[in-house]
Amino acid sequence: LLQLYAPLNFLGSIYSSIRNALVDLEHMFGLLEETVEVADPAHPLPIAARLHDAAPVSVAFRDVHFGYRPDREILHGVSFSAAPGTLVAIVGPTGAGKSTISRLLFRFYDVWSGHVMIDGHDVRAYRQADLRAAIGVVPQDTVLFNDTIGYNIAYGRLGATQEEIEHAARLAQVHDFIVSLPDGYGTRVGERGLKLSGGEKQRVAIARTILKDPRLLILDEATSALDTHTEREIQSALRAVSAERTTVVIAHRLSTVVDADEILVLADGRVQERGRHADLVAKGGLYAAMWAAQDAGMDDSAQTVPEKLPV
Ligand code: ATP
User: Fold this and answer.
1) ipTM of this model?
2) Which one has a higher pLDDT value, 106 or 253?
3) Mutate which of 100, 270, 307 to test ligand 1's pocket (most atoms within 8 Å of Cβ)?
4) pLDDT of residue 69
5) Is 116 helix (H, G, I), strand (E, B) or coil?
6) Which atom in ligand 1 lies closest to the alpha carbon of residue 266?
7) How far apart are alpha carbons 260 and 60 in whole angstroms?
8) Whose CA is nearest to atom 11 of ligand 1?
9) Per residue in 268-304, pLDDT tens?
10) Residue 239: its pLDDT value, please?
């Protein structure tokens, strides 16, 4: 029996290796399925990438239901629209689904039901590469390449001239800083070069986005408080990039929210309130409570939106 057991044991271990391999394959197919899910259409619609070549885009969410995992819906029927050239700010507590909305605009995932529309068509009608070329994002935290500061801006549109790069840097309020560096635009930055402050990095990201000139801009505002001077510089740089451009802001700062054409108050994956700042304050609901909570003692628009809604 023992003689029999050894080979059986051996076979057993082979069996379990094969089974593990199959599980791995299943995972792989799972991943493949996910990739297939966001596949390009057979006959994609063209979409202009740069504002230079076309009007700003229109954006709309129509009754969007979405979750990352089948057992947990995150957005429960979100609808809103942004007319070309307008600015929509999304505010709400942490985990409300704000970043999820921006990921769906990029079509990193497909919705469960409803539509994410750009230029009047579902994002599934476009090639992903074209869609992503038409959208620019200024993230909370910019990662710089280990290269020159000039290259880090030029990356927004490879092939741009030095003149265009400097024009973008001026608009982003970072040109004067760059020329004050020992090697100017040739100064190496990143992990192995000059370390830039958060505010400087963000202005480099803004210059990069100005150069990219996307038709849709997504701003993911930093939660961390900046000093008033840096805050002002960033705000004016952001105005330069969002002017005339359809913009969706994941807002943490009231200065952006106050001027928004529409504010969406998102909580638990639902738009609880919407409207302009003054109307929402007058309404006396959730937004008004948020505003009042941080308005106390506020003498500067650089105040951040509280992450927790007062009840
Ligand atoms: P914050 O203000 O903290 O950035 P948010 O409003 O942007 O929050 P989202 O990042 O959109 O919130 O997340 C919404 C919900 O989805 C959260 O509960 C989060 O845990 C979940 N979630 C986000 N990304 C994933 C993911 N890749 N896989 C699974 N769940 C996720």
Assistant:
1) 0.97
2) 106
3) 100
4) 94
5) strand
6) 6
7) 16
8) 97
9) 999 999 999 999 999 999 899 888 887 664 544 444 5
10) 85
Scan for tokens 């090639």, then name that residue. 127
Q: Which pLDDT score is estimated for 297? A: 46
Q: Which helix (H) or strand (E) holds 1?
A: none
Q: Using CA of residue 232, residue 233, residue 238, residue 240, what is the dihedral sign? A: positive
For the CA of 223, the closest atom of ligand 1 is 2
Say if ligand 1 is within 6 A of residue 247 CB. no
Tell whether ligand 1 has an atom less than 6 A from the beta carbon of residue 94: yes
- What residue owns the CA closest to ligand 1's atom 25? 68
Q: Within 10 A of 171 (CB to CB), how many other CB atoms are there? A: 20
101 CA from centroid of ligand 1 (Å): 10
Using one digit for the tens of pLDDT, what is the confidence trace for 38-69? 889 999 999 999 999 999 999 999 999 999 99
Distance of CA 207 to the CA centre of its chain: 16
Which tens digits make up the pLDDT trace of 88-145?
999 998 899 999 999 999 999 999 999 999 999 999 999 999 999 999 999 888 888 9
pTM, entire model = 0.82
Structure tokens at 91: 């505010």
Quote the CA–CA distance of 152 and 279 in Å, as a whole number: 41
| Ligand 1, atom 9, residue with closest C-alpha | 97
Q: Is 95 in the pocket of ligand 1 (CB under 6 A)?
A: yes
Distance 295 CA to ligand 1 centre (A): 27
Give the start-end residues of each E strand in 165-279.
216-220, 246-250, 262-267, 270-275
